[in-house]
Fold these 4 entries.
Entry 1:
Amino acid sequence: MGGRDRGTFRTGEPRGSRPAGEGCGPEGEGGDTMTRTFRCGGRTAGRWRVCLLALLALAAWSRSLQAAEGKGARADVQGNLPIEITADRLLADSVKETVTFEGNVRAKQGEVTLFSDRLFAEYQGTGRSVEKITAEGNVRVLHAGREARGERAVFYNQEQRIVLSGGAGLVQGEDSLKGDTVTIFLQENRSVVTGGEGGRVRAVIHPRGILERKEKTDR
């Protein structure tokens, strides 16, 4: 289509809500709930950048994080920062109140960056607040110098908690932990690794790394 990357989304907006031209906008035919094509002019390494729709659909994520300011200054700072998401394709369904990003997904807000094959957001239509975000396929979460990995991750918005599962692990420098699930508590800046059926967690710890971190703490 003239060198433009394409994605699709569902919307209840009337036809012709945005004129054709450069930038991002929907086009298509349909009834009350239409399937439309979301087009963005220009390419970014073979992918289109989700800009306007991501801002509208996930702005509530930032607002809901702001509501946590009573729980600490860290949550307030995090909640005031924008969310930037890039993906190959986006599907938004106003009836089911869901937004799905697919293909080389990257989501970043403040100090937290998440990578996955797919990202699925569930939100409430009344306040447009995101209840839960699920990432699937080659999930990686970078936060506070740590990298957590798994096949699936669920972000619980109200609790500010991320749970990774499916061969989950945690890496910090040369040290690593492997278990069944990794739980990241964003406000508390801590992580918990839980074992599988046998209740076992595998750890690879380099004493030198521990001593170096202890020396920095003692200074």
Note: The CA atoms of residues 185 and 208 lie 27 Å apart.
Entry 2:
Amino acid sequence: MTKNITLKIKEKMPAIVIILFLAAAFLVVGFLFGRKSGSTGHSNPSDRIVHNDGDEHETHEGEDEHGDVVKLSEQELEEFGIEIGTAGPGKLQLHTSLPGEIRVNQDNSAHIVPRVPGIVQEVKKKLGDFVRKGDLLAVIESRELADAKADYLADLERFASAQSNFTREKNLWEKKISSEQEYINAKQGIAEAQIELRSAEQKLHSLGFTEDYLKELPNMSDVSFTRYEITAPFVGTIVSKHITVGEVVGDESEIFIISDLSTVWVDLSVYQKDLAYIQPGQTATISARHGIPEIKGEISYVGQVVGEQTRTALARIVIPNPQELYRPGIFVTANVAVGEIDVPLLVPQSALQTVDGKTCVFIQDEEGFEPQPVELGRANEAYVEVKSGLAAGQRYVTKGAFTLKAQLSKESFGDGHGH
């Protein structure tokens, strides 16, 4: 039985060997075909580098070595607006940002208060109106004003009478007709009348009446005695109004606020950590956003007291506002230049791009432009210090680096390398 089995195995051996040989051959062919297909899928024939020895392996190594290099012609550099500079030292301006608010310039604002109490007869201006010096704002009917004018006219008559009496007594005394005592009494009377007249006159002056007005007062009608006209003290805009016809106003009622908005205050909040760096005379760039242009100004005042609630001090900038774009109440941010330092390598922020999750600059060499990872240090909104990754004297892209990044991304998706 054993002999028969052995004979059968020997008879089948050639067939088994043939089957194993064919299976091995298929595996080898499949492996070689897979390598060829994989190589073709990652290479564009037009981009292959051909070496003199024709070594396919060396060709792919050369391509991987320069796979992140972008080549552009001089014409393309100009077309894309790409600018190239040389890495080197520079001065880095240090800044700090402070929150703030635009406010009315109180040095150019007037709180209009009637100088006499009375009843409002007319209101000539409304909120937001632009006014010039002397423009009529409102008319008040005031009994107190009528009394003041009447007292002035009475004192004016009394002074005229005393003056006439003094002239007469002086002539009589000089002619030895009247006694010296009568002359002295007349002289004293004119002095007292003059004092009372001056007092009444000053009272009307304090109410805003001019000398020319007082000269015309004796010829005015009784109706004008109670009329008190409130006028604008200077050119400005009515930013507050609290007056209506028929209401009673006192001599402490704030009925208008007029502000000259051609300049405004920018009040900044200075935190304790920044107090040592903020000084009068420093320049700040003020940003209000929302379509309002930035403007530069100089700090004119830094408060000496820190607020108990806010824990901040006040810093103030006065800025021109001829077009009234900077409206009181708008919140702003001020970027204050607090000094500058020398750094070994300084590049513009426009040179930085993120490539494969790393911050890079594009350096220029014989092959083209290649992203170079860098380590950054101190910075402001325009420039940044490079601590490592870039050497002094290296050529790098200062403007237009985003275009190179876009070209690099395009190539990574199979559109071809730029070299």
Note: The chain has four domains: 2-65, 74-89+344-415, 97-105+261-341, 112-259.
Entry 3:
Amino acid sequence: MKGYVTRLCDIDSIGIPDEMLEVHIDKERIEKQIAALSLRYANEISCIICARGDIVRCKADEASYPDKRTIILFTGASLPAAEEAANAAIGKKLGESFKTELAGKSVELTVLKITRRMPVEVTDELIASMGIDGVTTVDGYRAYLTAKATEDANLENSKAVMRYLMDELINGSEFEYDEQAMKAAVEQAKADYAAMPDEGYAFTDEEIEQSVVYNCKQGWAAEEFCRQHGIEIDEQAVRQQAGQLGQMMELMGETVPDEAELLDMARSEECLNPLFEHINDMITRKIGG
């Protein structure tokens, strides 16, 4: 479906709210990550009697599990399905058998091995042994985690700002298109969605309509952006993209439009790349990428 932009919003004039540029680092989480090294690199000893926090290797009885499978119980923090069995293992001795529930099934387990993890002190020597380039001290590791957290926060901010600027660009622009053609595209999208296998998520008719209209306007805005900035699109790349798009739609069970419409869709996709690059440059100037 062909559409046009009668007035394109000046994306460079869109202000970005200050709160979207703020970086918040969870210092408490970083300290917990450092403290967690104490258990990650813990020394292990074999024990005779199980205490809370131990790792217990058990053998299931043949009646419950014909293959006599080995069961590993974490008595410190178990999954819900193994919680009762893990609690039942506490206080049991090496070689002792006990009956319990495991994943909703009655089972008799025999203790084969009890492993206790002995936490170590988090020292500069431990940090240096981790082999992180340039990180040899606890303070250095703290700075390393802080830098990673800052990078991750900036990335999330960048994604949010990208969505915000695209929304503002589309909402601030004016478009002209065939209403009946748009309605037909929406109905086709609804039919394609209804024919898709259930994958655990659901969209309402309103959400499908909003998505179709948004994607069309986004593509048209990108085309107009390229036109106004004198950006030429590689038509060979457009034809290649159209072919790939048609194949993908066919594989997904969607209705494949005619060649002309596929080319229009592919051209819009190709025009999005320069627009996204421009937005990324804006974001980089604001929050450093």
Note: The chain has two domains: 3-25+154-287, 43-118.
Entry 4:
Amino acid sequence: MKGFARAAFLAALFLFLAGAEARASALSVSSPAFKDGERMPRQSGCEGGDRSPPLQVVGVPGEAKSLAILMTEQDSPRGQQPLWIAYNLAPTYISIAENQPRTRQLKGGGMQIALGNAKPGYTGPCPPAGVTRRYLIEVFALDSLLDLPENATKQDFLLAVEGHILVRGWITGRYKK
């Protein structure tokens, strides 16, 4: 009987975790500029103007209070380097226009963080010449607004969203100079 109880517990735990994972990844993120896993357009990179790509988000739950974006370079020798953090976007902001301004505050109350550069906002891919790297753009639907200082880091952002993610989704792009 002991083995049956353990097996039943493990099965229940597996189903619970599978349901939590399915819920946590239920947000659909796409871009009219590139398909998931494909090359990002030149204008999104450092040699093309650092224009943030347009994004479309589907599946935002009604109870969401805000959306947040985290874009990271996946293949950097220095680890996952953040290139864009935007937060407190309205949960109805499901079509994010290309070329978001390089300002701390966005229209509609959204905010952006300056990540190791002088200006807040999007910093485009800029791998070494001839090297292809992957870039992950994650969108989070949150159950709250975030209160982050102007000099917040990626770690500050990740701590702030912890426990507040209703659903998340992502798109991955590749870029080569």
Note: Helices lie at 2-24, 154-161.
